[in-house]
Amino acid sequence: MTDRFLRACYRQETDCTPVWFMRQAGRYLPEYRRLRERYGLMELCRHPELAAEITLMPVHRFAVDAAIIFADLMTPLEAMGVDFEVQEGVGPIIVHPIRSPDDVQKLPVPDDDAIAPATMQAIQIVKGELNGLPLIGFAGAPFTLASYLVEGGPSRDFAQTRAFMFRHPKAWHQLMAKLTETVVRYITAQVQAGADAVQIFDSWVGCLSPTDYCEFVLPHMCQLFERTAPLRVPRILFGTGTATLLPLMRQAGSEVIGLDWRVPLDEAWQALDFAVAVQGNLDPAVLLADWAVVERHTMNILRRTKGKAGHIFNLGHGILPQTDPSIVARLVDFVHEVTDRQRGWR
Amino acid sequence: MTDRFLRACYRQETDCTPVWFMRQAGRYLPEYRRLRERYGLMELCRHPELAAEITLMPVHRFAVDAAIIFADLMTPLEAMGVDFEVQEGVGPIIVHPIRSPDDVQKLPVPDDDAIAPATMQAIQIVKGELNGLPLIGFAGAPFTLASYLVEGGPSRDFAQTRAFMFRHPKAWHQLMAKLTETVVRYITAQVQAGADAVQIFDSWVGCLSPTDYCEFVLPHMCQLFERTAPLRVPRILFGTGTATLLPLMRQAGSEVIGLDWRVPLDEAWQALDFAVAVQGNLDPAVLLADWAVVERHTMNILRRTKGKAGHIFNLGHGILPQTDPSIVARLVDFVHEVTDRQRGWR
Lengths: 346, 346
Hints:
homodimer, alpha/beta, two-stranded antiparallel ribbon
């Protein structure tokens, strides 16, 4: 249907700027909320037909340039035998959090075909319905998965994760290696099932200093991107609060870096030496305001791209549950129209 | 006893680097936990003798170069008629959060002498015990107080606060003006009671983009620092996740900027044009590791100062409850010793 999204990932010229939204298949859609009344979150992830249906919801409503498979960051951890429940409005609660090097030892690396078979089936179903629209697969990054495993519940600053890292550096690297291997297998399976691109969510890595990112995370991220390079699909690396980490994240080797809303897009792209495509970075809270506010913030972002190839429009984090879908529809069309005209201006 | 801390605030030479810790009077001290078994947090704040006793606990244990008055960020909001309870391990829960411009209208600005009289008495008691050691007063910054009022409970990303700001800019500015006036009066009263310096905690302002900080926060911060300048005490402005906000925070007009652990101290100081003193910025989670790790991270910070005058050693956020007080004692002495020697090297 359109290759805008994939072309932009590789910084190739496009007719207009591609758009998709993190959590575009989620709680702000009434049709999704209706499903959630009957099924738990992980239940939806485990039913290929339902996961496929949800993935397609935003595609039916909006002119988005990509679909993203409906799954949960915790999905691959199920195959590692991690016991957890997802609490409404709280997030995943781990029954036995990782507290010692011994707990890391015990964690198995699952076989390729054991990781989220329902998600792979959902990808196959969705692919048959997309008429060529690209499908994005995704996974939590090793650090972010580790932070869930170590904290065991919601956290604002992930201090327990950092403390574990500083106290048990060897066990930490072992944990990261196991998670990296699992993520590589999970991502590989998604691409083999039909995903055209993948996003790695390192949502909470912004709690680290650059020095600690370098020592405790970067080697594993390099490994992850090296191992998934043969898949020949563009890979997006996204995190929040990453202003000081961007040059290091670039070294990890993804084709695209996702930016949260706190970094001005032009400065962030410059910090990345314009060597990768960038995705983002509208504050999701802006979508709760009037259209005039949405338009002003959107134009601010588009202007900062200076019309350069390699920008994928998105939010700076997931769409908020209170968002009005009609504003989302208008925003997609607006970005397409304005950037089409922008190209005329050049 | 020592004027190291105050001299460093003004970027004057000192015999060695001054040290204090955010939350140094808190839950990691067994003598504090014993008190907490008998009293609630806000109860302790309301008893001048107890608040004074807690303020002095770290001074009796460690060679810190300043005391900070024991109070809660929410303390001045009590005088604004805000009803809340502080939940153990969760934080303040507001009974009637601010949900509309009307709620802002109704919020009164309290008279000077109505704001936290117990804290002022505690300051007077502490001053009599400090033998000249400087006492730091403090307040939450208007944005951070507003974020508590709007969110009503714990939040990871403060999306409701940003949404309120975008939706109701007029009411937002009115709210910020009322909070600024309250904070100015609260700070003024603390200095009049005897505080030798003040720290403004804008703990959660890092959730804003620079553009939004400029529009929604900076004018009020300029006002705050202009109005408190005649007090002639050094003012420290601290926030977390502020990597992209530092040059704007400097414009607000404080003598010192507090840095969290995610910004390399030398780069941050440069972003501030070396025009203010800096405070920080050891990751509090480092204190949960072995001494060798603490020493390595501490040396990293001290090296980045290049021995320049105007560095106050501190953590990048509050001391964690699991911290061993004996590591804290060792760290204070270590910073004093090393920086004394460092001066010999120059």
